[in-house]
Amino acid sequence: VAMVAGLANGNELAPVSALEIEGAIIPAATVQGWHDSIRKGRGKPHGIQNMLGIAVDSFWTPTKDDVATLESRLPDAIKRAVVSPQQYDKFATTKEAKEFISKNAKAIVQNFRRFRRQYIGLVVEGKKYIYVNSFPKDEFHNDNTSDFVFVLDGGFWYWQILYNAKQKKFSHLNINGEA
Fold first, then answer.
1. Can you tell me the distance from the alpha carbon of 89 to that of 53, in angstroms, rounded to the nearest whole number?
2. Residue 62: CB partners within 8 Å, gap ≥ 6?
3. pLDDT digits (tens, 9 = 90+) for 32-89
4. Confidence bin at 163 (pLDDT 50/70/90)
């Protein structure tokens, strides 16, 4: 069962179109607001890192050029995950986990143009990353969604990956499971 968390209004998202992919750059101030709101309700050490699964120092706003560079490299990274899943998912250590990532990465490749994305700039241990949040176009009909899309389950239609903006490398591929 998929669930969507509404955390921002559409006026705060910066729509982008890179290499025929629709998406939205989410400004640092918006992400900081989400972080503060989550912490207010739950206290330290909670915050956006609990939603994203990453310990975050601060936030930054990626540029359209950052996103274009990322998107130019993303298809090859997902294709490599099909044959070498452990390269992108540190938990892909068992045969079953590797098969899960490989099978679902292949499905992502086959449906690559059917996704929209959200791009969130994160600073982790002093390094700039872009968190890529991908979800199906068919499920969200407005301009790249008016909310941050946080979905439980949903299979390969919902996946995330982390991109090191300086090194231009991907890591932390996460593909949702199915209920």
1. 13
2. 25, 70, 119, 121, 130, 165
3. 877 777 667 665 655 666 666 677 889 999 999 999 999 999 999 999 999 999 888 8
4. very high
Query: Which segments within the chain are labelled E, that is strand?
Result: 14-18, 21-26, 58-60, 115-124, 127-136, 159-164, 169-175
| Distance separating alpha carbons of residues 46 and 166, to the nearest angstrom | 27
Distant-in-sequence, close-in-space partners of 23: CB < 8 Å, separation ≥ 6: 15, 16, 17, 67, 116, 117, 118, 119, 144
- For residue 6, pLDDT beyond 80: no
Kindly state the helix (H) or strand (E) to which residue 70 belongs, with its residue range. Answer: helix 64-83
CA atoms of 95 and 171, how far apart (whole Å): 19
- Three-state secondary-structure class, residue 46: coil
